[in-house]
Write a structure and sequence with these properties.
By secondary structure, the protein is an alpha/beta fold. It contains 12 helices and 14 strands. The structure holds 3-isopropylmalic acid (IPM) and magnesium ion. The site of magnesium ion (MG) has 2 residues, from helix 9.
Length: 356
């Protein structure tokens, strides 16, 4: 099959991890007779430096017309003080919104080879951790009205959190459908004891829970979820939640597995177009040193093949290649322990590609 992938390498370690992911995708093409064509578009700080905006209109069009988008990471201290309207993160939010990527899937899976990197005790992670956070991505406080104004002689800032029934329902359906392919459990996370938007969220989720009667459903408050993720993470299968709660909980969940560098994500639209990216940031402190962990990005490519290209066999091949690299003892610096083989970012990419 021929596929067009728009590649947004971004800032910091973005370019180096994406290069390794492309190495792996190229090997998949060779092995399974596909042809992937890559179109690079600047995003984030590198685009601000060149064009004065974090993504150009033409760049955005190239994302919209692609079969899928592969993203590294955006941002860095160099652009921390630019005008908020052109911050690097603005481009990311614009791509999510303009491509209609409302469903963000963030799997949190403990690689058993790395179980001792988890900050949790073996008695807690021993059963493994395998949960899927389904985060609403194009609504809520991220996209609500915001303003800073003078009131009674002082500055007052406001960010509105808004959700409509249809936005809640469509993300809810993704969660229930995802659960059906997993262990058939959905936990919907909200703050319904305080927020109106959460009370509506809960009401819509309850309607869906009646419809998906075969899926075990529970409501859980976001603060309690933060606690339960540490206390007993294996109780969760699918967690569905609004945009900002999902942002926070997915960082927390990723740490349970020992390294945020391993975790992929998929941002899906109503159609097959999706954007795939690791959940970590641009790590400017180690940029250009060839020591970053490319596995999160490589695993994101596996999600791309599975969700956008309907290539489950090829996706399995990537996941197996990553597992073999870990089984064979290869570790990047972030997951390195004595007795293992420490490799650079580019070496890890080559090893995984060779395993395909
Ligand atoms: C994420 C990131 C982004 C978010 C930032 C960079 C805007 O933290 O993808 O989780 O908050 O969504
Ligand atoms: Mg985040």
């Amino acid at each position: 099959m021929n596929k067009n992938i728009t590649v947004l390498k971004g800032d910091g370690i973005g370019p180096e991890i994406v290069n390794e992911a492309i190495k792996v995708l190229d090997k998949v093409c060779e092995k399974y007779s596909h042809k992937f064509t890559y179109t690079e578009v600047d995003i984030g700080g590198c685009s601000i430096d060149k064009y004065g905006v974090p993504i150009t209109k033409e760049g955005m069009e190239k994302c919209k017309s692609a079969d899928s988008v592969l993203l590294g990471a955006v941002g860095g201290p160099k652009w921390d003080n630019v005008d908020p309207s052109i911050r690097p993160e603005k481009a990311l939010l614009a791509v999510r919104s303009e491509l209609g990527l409302f469903a963000n899937l963030r799997p949190t899976k403990l690689f058993m080879q790395l179980a001792d990197s988890s900050p949790l005790k073996p008695s807690i992670v021993g059963n493994g951790i395998d949960l899927m956070i389904v985060r609403e991505l194009t609504g809520g406080i991220y996209f609500g009205k915001r303003r800073t104004e003078m009131l009674d002689g002082e500055k007052v800032a406001t960010d509105e959190m808004t959700y409509s029934e249809h936005e809640i329902e469509r993300i809810g359906r993704v969660a229930f459908e995802t659960a059906r392919k997993r262990s058939s459990r959905v936990a919907s996370v909200d703050k319904a004891n305080v927020l109106d938007s959460s009370r509506l969220w809960r009401a819509v989720m309850h309607r869906l829970a009646d419809e998906y009667a075969d899926v075990e459903y529970s409501d859980i408050l976001v603060d309690n979820t933060a606690m339960q993720l540490i206390k007993n993470p294996s109780q969760f299968d699918v967690i569905v939640t609004e945009n900002m709660f999902g942002d926070i909980l997915s960082d927390e969940a990723s740490m349970l597995t020992g390294s945020i560098g391993m975790m992929p994500s998929a941002s899906l639209s109503e159609g097959t177009l999706g954007m795939y990216e690791p959940i970590h940031g641009s790590a400017p402190d180690i940029a250009g040193m060839d020591i970053a962990n490319p596995i999160g990005t490589i695993m994101s490519c596996a999600m791309m093949l599975r969700y956008s290209f309907d290539m489950p066999r090829e996706a399995d091949a990537i996941e197996a290649a990553v597992n073999k690299a870990l089984d064979d003892g290869y570790r990047t610096a972030d997951i390195y322990k004595e007795g293992f083989k420490k490799v650079k970012c580019s070496e890890m990419g080559s090893i995984i590609a060779a395993n395909i």
